[in-house]
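ping. complex inputs:
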Amino acid sequence: MRTLILFFFTVITILSAQAPVFDRYFSDRTLRVDYHHTGTKGTELFALDKLYDEGIWPGSRTQLLDPLNYGEYMLRVFDVASGALIYSRGYSSIFNEWHSTDEANAGIMKTLHETVRIPFPKAKVQLTISRRDKRMIFRELFSAVIDPNDPAAVNRQRRTPQFKQTKLVDNGAPSAKVDLLILGDGYTKAEMQKFRDHAKHYSDVLFGTSPFKERRKDFNVWTIEVESAESGIDKPGKNEWKENALGTMYDTFGSARYILTEENRTLRDIAGQVPYDAIAILVNDNRYGGGGIYNLYTTCFANTDAKGMEWQMDYVFVHELGHSFGGLGDEYYTSSVSYTDFYQSGVEPWEPNLTAATDRKELKWSSMVDPSTPIPTPWNKQAYDSLEALRGRLDRLAPDYYAKREPLYQATQEIVKNAEYKGKVGTFEGAGYVSKGIFRPAVDCRMFSLSLVGFDPVCSAAINKVIDSFTR
Ligand SMILES: [Zn+2]
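pong. complex structure:
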């Protein structure tokens, strides 16, 4: 009997380990699934909105199951007839960003509109969404059976493209490339040449930065020339409101520099006119800001009045793509934030560039650490932390912000440049907003300091893995 059970177990294991075949389960189109994500601190629920048949499938046809395991949420699609898992992807969401605000902590309920996209199924599927619990284990929160052959279930209306599109970088068929879509918000029709110049500039900036530089041939870049009725975007904190097409705004969830849009349906309707895997939204405004949510989008301010500070936009653009494309966590921190605000003791963060591990053997990037590098790795943390009072007093929106920041910036650069293990991979304490207990892989990185420094080797490897998930 035992032999028989083992035999069956082996067969099941082999069957389930087999990669699903694209043509068996999917046709070469995209099913866009819109839903409302509602809740407050400690509770959340999902309600289906609409389903759309949306053009060719731009994602991988060979890596249907998520090889990365990044993100707060996991989307899974099962073939109803066989029960087989046929598609999965990790992602993070705007709801999750809101979830840690004072509003949510006060118990206020809120609804945000979100989208997941999957290859178009040939037969009935069960779609589930799971969220990580405090121990990082995915727990299912939502499940729905979708019948793609029910004519009433899926909106198949062909929308006439609203705006002009271009393929800025063309390296071949979308199914084997990362299709990056650059959109503009707050650009009027008269400002469209400016948008074209900006799109070209940021595309060049991205492909001038490793590891994107070496992987340029793995990307297509699309643009859609989205016209806004007014120039610039909303600044609710200053009671300034603009008629901008994509609905991006500063002051998202109470943070002056945080730019997101809650107009997801509008964004997706416009984006859907081209095959896209990743979205970057350039914002025609001069106030410092941006945002990046894994597998959702990047936003970045694209104008500046501050002379000599233009490089900051380049910094923001690539840093935010580190979040939205690479699944990377912020490596910076302040000592005012306590570990327990963000982390559970003894639980490893999912971000590929953050760790709580203090044992070399348990370290997720151990293969990249030289045996002679101590773990944890010493760096001039004390000197860095001593500048914190000054950093905390800076007002990013004040007119003299840049003048006041400059000496601080220079002092920080000195500390990082003179670190003993500069250029080495190790575990440097202070990352993911907290000063103690979370470690970053290098003393400096595009995810750590506000500078044009490149990605550290661990971040680069993580980005390469994401690119591979689209192209291999
Ligand atoms: Zn960041």
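The mean pLDDT is 93.
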